[in-house]
């Protein structure tokens, strides 16, 4: 019986440590420096995220700027991280009111690389 409890304890601790590591890897800033899905660059984005290591709450911002233009949009991001991925609700404030825009899914893959 004690061997089973020890194994469960080991697995739970391993899972929690991995989860904290993935949350730590999600923290940071990312931007595109080339075209995404198009022959030429049309938009520039800057993504900034912070994940709480203990409870998995994720907050951040997403700024999108039209290339060669000063038109830009700033979105607020928030969500709760599961094991390796998070679904972020995007919110934009227009005319003093918050509008929910869309859901963005971010997943930690290998060594902190996200997609």
Total domain count:
1
What is the total tally of β strands? 6
- Strand fraction equals over 45%
Order of helices and strands: HEEEEEE
Distance between the termini: 42 Å
Largest sheet: 6 strands, antiparallel
Quote the average pLDDT: 82
List the strand order in the largest sheet: 1-2-3-4-5-6
Query: Can you give the helix content as a percent range?
Result: 10-25%
Class inferred from helices and paired strands: alpha+beta
Question: Which of globular, elongated, flat, extended, rod-shaped describes the shape?
Answer: elongated
Number of helices: 1
Q: Write down the Rg.
A: 18 Å
- Low-pLDDT sequence parts: none
Describe this structure in words.
The chain has 115 residues and is α+β, with helices and mostly antiparallel strands. The chain has one domain (2-107). Helix content is 22%, strand content 46%. The protein has one helix and six strands. A six-stranded antiparallel beta sheet has the order 1-2-3-4-5-6. A hairpin with a 4-residue loop joins β4 (72-80) and β5. The longest helix has 25 residues, at 2-26. The protein starts with a helix and ends in an 8-residue tail after the last strand. The model has no long low-confidence stretch (mean pLDDT 82).
């Amino acid at each position: 019986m004690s061997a089973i409890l020890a194994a469960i304890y080991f697995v739970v601790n391993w899972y929690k440590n991995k989860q904290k590591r993935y949350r730590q890897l999600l923290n940071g800033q990312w931007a595109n420096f080339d075209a995404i899905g198009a022959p030429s660059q049309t938009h520039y984005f800057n993504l900034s995220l912070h994940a709480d290591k203990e409870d998995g709450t994720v907050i951040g911002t997403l700024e999108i700027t039209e290339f060669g233009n000063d038109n830009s949009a700033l979105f607020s991001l928030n969500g709760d991280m599961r094991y390796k991925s998070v679904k972020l609700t995007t919110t934009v404030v227009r005319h003093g009111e918050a509008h929910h825009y869309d859901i963005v899914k971010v997943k930690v893959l290998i060594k902190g690389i996200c997609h």
